[in-house]
Amino acid sequence: MSIQVRNIAKRFGSFTALDGVTLDFPSGELVALLGPSGCGKTTLLRIIAGLEKADGGQVLLEGEDASSRHVRERQVGFVFQHYALFRHMTVFDNVAFGMRMKPRAQRPTARQIREKVHSLLELVQLDWLADRFPSQLSGGQRQRIALARALAVEPRVLLLDEPFGALDAKVRKELRRWLRRLHDELHITSIFVTHDQEEALEVADRVVLMNRGRVEQVGAPEEVYRQPATPFVYSFLGAVNLFHGRVDSEGVRVGDDLLPRAAQEGGLAEGAQVLAFARPHELDIIADGGGESGMAAKVCRALSFGATTRIELEGSDGQHFEVELTRERAEALDLAAGQAVRLVPSNLRIFEYEEGAGI
Amino acid sequence: MSKTTRVLPGFGLSLGVTLTWLSLIVLLPLSSVFLKASDLSLAEFWKVVSAPRVVASYKLSFGMSLAAAAINAVFGMMLAWCLVRYRFFGKRLVDALIDLPFALPTAVAGIALTALYAKNGWIGQYLALFDIQVAFKPLGVLVALVFIGLPFVVRTVQPVLEDLDIEHEEAAASLGVGRWRTFRHVILPVLLPALLTGFTLAFARAVGEYGSVIFIAGNIPMVSEIVPLMIITKLEQYDYPGATAVAEVMLLISFALLFLINGLQAWTARRTGRDR
Question: How many Å apart are CA A200 and CA A177, to the nearest integer?
Fold first, then answer.
């Protein structure tokens, strides 16, 4: 089922949680709402579910205005960050709950319920836990049971609120892959909220980036990563080095240093204030020859435990930089702590500076 | 027990202290009751406790105490719900008011209630229009017992409700479950052990209550006499063995009922997977 939200606004007292959000969620897709905490992503999800009422705007489910419909009638499956399993019921009873509570006319027989619960528990690979109570399960198991419970009433959409937020890193990774596979099997329209960019990029068909109650960018994971539309998106998706500077004929001038301009950025007048970004792997280090090309910095330390070597540096005004080099390149440079070097970007992404852009 | 290593040692010592204390404070006075009553032969004993007036008082005391505890369970839960779930003007005041029946001398409560419910009282005069009489009737006993038992249920249910995550209700709603069924199957089972505790405490207090009841009950033989009053009456007639005999039966019934309710409570806890 497709979901559309039109111009949704929501305030909590003087705090604006959502500020005119309009989005389309096509049928069958797995979409991530990604943003820092307080950006309104969970509020948006709860408004779509009907757990929260918007101050303005519409929620359309399959083209039909559902704004005034109660959560009970929206047929949405909702998965909570802290699972919200009924602790006085066994795993089996938790999953069966939604079916057992249906009005008598629509209620499946006890046998049908039993079969359905077992098939769902098999789907989440926890059939052997049917008789346990939630308190006897691990976090990852609880969340899978919560998902089975939500799926039991055959919802038209699945909404997940930071589903892996309370789990440890290893279980998170496993469940992420598992959720993706599950979605490929079921093809149910799903929206999940996360503040973890890696999770969003890895799992979702499309990513919606939100900041301060507004949508910053919508696109496929690769698209938003490669072509970030705003400084916020650029800095939120992965590690970055940020330079505040001014455009001149040769490039971007940062204090006394000059970052040679990569040809891509046009349309900025000379003298314009800009924010320039480079990812750690897009910077190279050269020994300081005394010139002004490249950003002057001092090596703090080198970390070489992965496939690449990460070098942390400090600018003249105390700003922190991070550079990622291949191991060979790092060995060839033979950097020592405290050494003065210059940073030269191979790629530079330049945005015009705006007051309060959320960086 | 001695095999498992505990962070805080001292099982033997603490159990010893517990038992000694319990014996001194509870068992010793109670056993003296039984000792005193043994002055009577079995036939005399039976004659005392099966006298119609005494039996009527047993029925009134235990019947009204159970009824009052049940009423308190329902309304106490509602009060606790309002105090936990909603924010309203004067909430702290209401919260403080709940404990008042604890602190008020019971005689004061009894006199105040009598003044209210007597035929010419503020409430009593209107009830009289419908031919309902509260003061000096069994109904008056009930009113007094409801009054003194209220805090028990509120104070036992409140912390459990505070613990209960609103997400459980939201989860039930998202599964399409209606309000009543959500309450019945999601909230009530979690509250039940605490509710039973509150019920038990309110009941126990009501059975032993004396001060507030005697003012409003009217103490009419066979109609509105409570067991504690029977005991006092016998004491005033210097019938010590008779008084202790009545007390003994009251103790036994109370103990049996409390034991039953505690068993019920353990059963609900086990059934809902909390006993782990």
Answer: 11
